[in-house]
Design goal:
Elements (H helix, E strand, L loop, with lengths): L2 H8 L9 H4 L27 H10 L4 H18 L10 H13 L7 H20 L26 H11 L3 H13 L3 H5 L6 E2 L7 E4 L11 E4 L3 H13 L10 H14 L8 H14 L4 H8 L3 H15 L3
Antiparallel strand pairs: 1-2, 2-3
Helix pairs in contact: 1-4, 3-4, 4-6, 5-6, 7-8, 7-11, 8-10, 8-11, 8-12, 12-14
């Protein structure tokens, strides 16, 4: 095995920070000029020269800290496999396919399907970026298929079960606010727990709305405004008077909220497993049934391109089973 490939063999499966200088740089003071200006990438540049520009691209776009760490770790493995000095123009689709086979078959411990799926997503992101920047004339990873099997589809509630849940939730104003919010917006659980009082807009009580915000710039494109039914206003005001939250709408963990929801599910005599995520799934399916396109649904759900690869197929099968 070539030395570069042996290094890949010895690399850990878990994501690791890639090039400390690329991941732990201190913030520059305002208006301070960059100390080093990297030359623009060209097809003649080596794959090893891509680490810093790619890290900068990931941080400037819609990616979590975890995704940035994983993708840079994947780039490191690819760089070690191909050889750090390999020019970008010398890389072929077959090389990428061989790298995936190497990761799956030639190393001591076979990676989980989820890990391999993420590495395919990395290839699509990395070579898609090179193509968009005109560094390479084509996206070498465009035709690589994701091979991760979808997890079992959740069992959705029937319409009468949704109505029973809504009626049971009315016994606890906190649960009622929660259920109405999720069925009308499909927020992720971390978005629910992160919702601040100032993000609720009751300027027009007949058209209440909430705004989803994120700190920093990385997730700015996922920010959105979601409208709620008119009846939510009165329920929300009763909730505020009863619980008097100080900063966030729900000042508890998502686990606590699932307990609150479980109590309503029990009162409704629903035997299915109902979670915050299931209410988000129900919202997504209702949107597709109402004629919303998949791309528009992605925007409403606030999902990144990487997360949407699998989620789109899940919702397509839930909404329109064969």
């Amino acid at each position: 095995m070539p030395q570069s490939r042996q290094a890949a063999h010895d690399s850990a499966e878990q994501p690791s920070l890639f090039f400390p200088e690329a991941t732990a740089e201190p913030a520059a003071p305002p208006h301070a000029p960059a100390l080093v200006q990297s030359a623009p990438l060209t097809a003649s540049a080596s794959i090893g020269a891509c680490a810093l520009p790619y890290a900068d691209h990931l941080r400037r776009t819609d990616h979590s800290v975890y995704t940035v760490t994983c993708f840079l770790s994947d780039l490191r493995l690819l760089t070690e496999y191909l050889g750090r000095e390999t020019p970008l123009r010398a890389i072929s689709r077959q090389m990428l396919a061989d790298w995936l086979v190497h990761l799956r078959m030639d190393r001591g411990t076979r990676p989980a399907p989820k890990t391999m799926s993420r590495r395919v997503t990395f290839l699509k992101n990395f070579f898609g970026w090179l193509a968009r920047e005109s560094v390479l004339p084509v996206d070498l990873a465009a035709n690589i298929a994701l091979s991760r099997p979808l997890p079992p589809l959740p069992e959705l509630l029937f319409e009468d079960e949704v109505r029973r849940l809504e009626m049971a939730a009315a016994a606890d104003v906190r649960c009622q606010v929660l259920v109405m919010l999720l069925l009308a917006t499909g927020l992720k659980k971390e978005e629910v727990t992160g919702l601040r009082l100032q993000d609720v807009d009751l300027a027009d009580p007949a058209h209440p709305a909430i705004e989803v915000h994120f700190p920093g710039q990385a997730k700015r494109r996922r920010e959105r405004r979601m409208e709620l039914p008119p009846a939510w206003t009165a329920v929300y005001l009763r909730y505020i008077e009863r619980y008097r939250p100080r900063e966030r709408v729900f000042e508890c963990t998502d686990r606590n909220l699932n307990y609150v929801l479980a109590a309503a599910v029990k009162r409704a005599r629903i035997e299915k497993r109902v979670t915050l995520q299931l209410l988000r799934d129900i919202y997504a399916v209702h949107q597709l049934h109402a004629g919303l396109s998949l791309e528009a649904l992605r925007d409403k759900l606030g999902l990144s391109e990487e997360a949407w690869h699998e989620t789109a197929e899940k919702y397509r099968k839930l909404a329109f089973p064969a």
